[in-house]
Amino acid sequence: MNISFIDKSLNSIKDKIDRGVRLDFEDGMNLYKSHDLIGVGRLAHSVRQKLHGNTAYYVYNQHINYTNVCINRCRFCAFARDKEENGSYTYSIEDIKERLKSRINEPVRELHIVGGLNPSLPFEYYLDLLKTAREIRPGACIKAFTAVEIDYLAQISGLNLEQTIEELKKAGLAMNPGGGAEVMSDRIWQELFPRKINSSRWLEIVETLHRAGLKGNATMLYGHIETIEERVSHLIKLRELQDKTGGFSAFIPLAFHPQNTKLSHIPGTTGFDDLKAVAAARLMLDNFDHIKAYWVMIGEKLAQIALSFGADDLDGTIVEEKITHMAGATSPKGLTRDHMEHLIISAGFIPVERDSFYNHVNTDKPGGRP
Ligand code: V47
């Protein structure tokens, strides 16, 4: 493809992409430093089109944040509370049953289940949670517990890490969401989330999950105190693990929302940052099949545009997102399937409803709809 760049340094990156040569750290830096957003976006779009043509994915999902009580108290988080603090909550298994049953007439394909590290909950609670979800929603994939929660569960289960994962799998765990790594840098770990596992433990847990046969996602929380060097290095660490295990399904850039956090003085990300994060990820993560534009964090309008900047997936319909909305997100709390498809079609793509593993569902209907 012929692309005339405003930023001529993108020519050498294009040349590497054309020759199938992996981009290195310096290329990643150049992508992030470049002000030629359209040029970077066109490069990312060409890679996205090769992989997925005009397809744009979404999933019909339900989020359950079972508790916001958390001992980690990360400085970027507006969701967590201490046990006795105003606004703290923990769902009982009965509450979770009710939440699942309240949407039983909807074709939910994926349950996204994450929460804080609440010392009042025993390991059996997590097993019951999974078993309950599987019983009420046998047709949905249970995508639950980030590496941070898995590490914690291994501490309270009385089992080793591998055995803990096996028990969770037996109870219904099928996949892991990508949160918890934030930006893999010791500096950021010490400044923003020193009580949480560090990057080497996060990588170790995720590798163990992948080796146990569980696919998962990866994320990067950007737009706070990180440097672009740290962003590029984060992407390269993910790419190296993916080379080893092939266990990552999608990458999701997460735009930092500062409201109600200890970092509320930091301005939120800009549209430029958000599109650049999607495009740079598409170009650097050459061994990831999917890049999600998470509409909850970047808004549905920008997520739609991100489909032409390297993203191939808008994530899900959701309905009750809490983590970002407590930090000031102004996006809706959920999208109807019609609206999701409208966003995709009006951006020139073909909507395909998927399950958690990117199998197409409802394929007999145009646009994958029942
Ligand atoms: O790990 C916390 C982030 C993550 C804030 O795997 C914040 O399919 C922005 O991981 N501003 C949880 N972000 C969300 C997550 C996720 C979301 C959607 C899909 C998937 C998937 C995973 O949210 C946390 C943290 O990185 N987060 N606070 C905040 N103030």
TrEMBL record:
<keyword id="KW-0474">Menaquinone biosynthesis</keyword>
<dbReference type="InterPro" id="IPR020050">
    <property type="entry name" value="FO_synthase_su2"/>
</dbReference>
<dbReference type="InterPro" id="IPR022432">
    <property type="entry name" value="MqnE"/>
</dbReference>
<feature type="domain" description="Radical SAM core">
    <location>
        <begin position="56"/>
        <end position="289"/>
    </location>
</feature>
<protein>
    <recommendedName>
        <fullName>Aminodeoxyfutalosine synthase</fullName>
        <ecNumber>2.5.1.120</ecNumber>
    </recommendedName>
</protein>
<feature type="binding site">
    <location>
        <position position="74"/>
    </location>
    <ligand>
        <name>[4Fe-4S] cluster</name>
    </ligand>
</feature>
<keyword id="KW-0408">Iron</keyword>
<feature type="binding site">
    <location>
        <position position="77"/>
    </location>
    <ligand>
        <name>[4Fe-4S] cluster</name>
    </ligand>
</feature>
<keyword id="KW-0411">Iron-sulfur</keyword>
<dbReference type="InterPro" id="IPR006638">
    <property type="entry name" value="Elp3/MiaA/NifB-like_rSAM"/>
</dbReference>
<keyword id="KW-0004">4Fe-4S</keyword>
<feature type="binding site">
    <location>
        <position position="70"/>
    </location>
    <ligand>
        <name>[4Fe-4S] cluster</name>
    </ligand>
</feature>
<keyword id="KW-0808">Transferase</keyword>
<feature type="binding site">
    <location>
        <position position="182"/>
    </location>
    <ligand>
        <name>S-adenosyl-L-methionine</name>
    </ligand>
</feature>
<comment type="pathway">
    <text>Quinol/quinone metabolism; menaquinone biosynthesis.</text>
</comment>
<dbReference type="InterPro" id="IPR007197">
    <property type="entry name" value="rSAM"/>
</dbReference>
<dbReference type="GO" id="GO:0051539">
    <property type="term" value="F:4 iron, 4 sulfur cluster binding"/>
</dbReference>
<dbReference type="GO" id="GO:0005506">
    <property type="term" value="F:iron ion binding"/>
</dbReference>
<dbReference type="GO" id="GO:0044689">
    <property type="term" value="F:7,8-didemethyl-8-hydroxy-5-deazariboflavin synthase activity"/>
</dbReference>
<comment type="function">
    <text>Radical SAM enzyme that catalyzes the addition of the adenosyl radical to the double bond of 3-[(1-carboxyvinyl)oxy]benzoate, leading to aminodeoxyfutalosine (AFL), a key intermediate in the formation of menaquinone (MK, vitamin K2) from chorismate.</text>
</comment>
<feature type="binding site">
    <location>
        <position position="76"/>
    </location>
    <ligand>
        <name>S-adenosyl-L-methionine</name>
    </ligand>
</feature>
<comment type="similarity">
    <text>Belongs to the radical SAM superfamily. MqnE family.</text>
</comment>
<keyword id="KW-0479">Metal-binding</keyword>
<dbReference type="InterPro" id="IPR034405">
    <property type="entry name" value="F420"/>
</dbReference>
<keyword id="KW-0949">S-adenosyl-L-methionine</keyword>
<dbReference type="GO" id="GO:0102573">
    <property type="term" value="F:aminodeoxyfutalosine synthase activity"/>
</dbReference>
<dbReference type="InterPro" id="IPR045567">
    <property type="entry name" value="CofH/MnqC-like_C"/>
</dbReference>
<dbReference type="InterPro" id="IPR013785">
    <property type="entry name" value="Aldolase_TIM"/>
</dbReference>
<dbReference type="Pfam" id="PF04055">
    <property type="entry name" value="Radical_SAM"/>
</dbReference>
<dbReference type="Pfam" id="PF19288">
    <property type="entry name" value="CofH_C"/>
</dbReference>
<dbReference type="InterPro" id="IPR058240">
    <property type="entry name" value="rSAM_sf"/>
</dbReference>
<dbReference type="GO" id="GO:0009234">
    <property type="term" value="P:menaquinone biosynthetic process"/>
</dbReference>
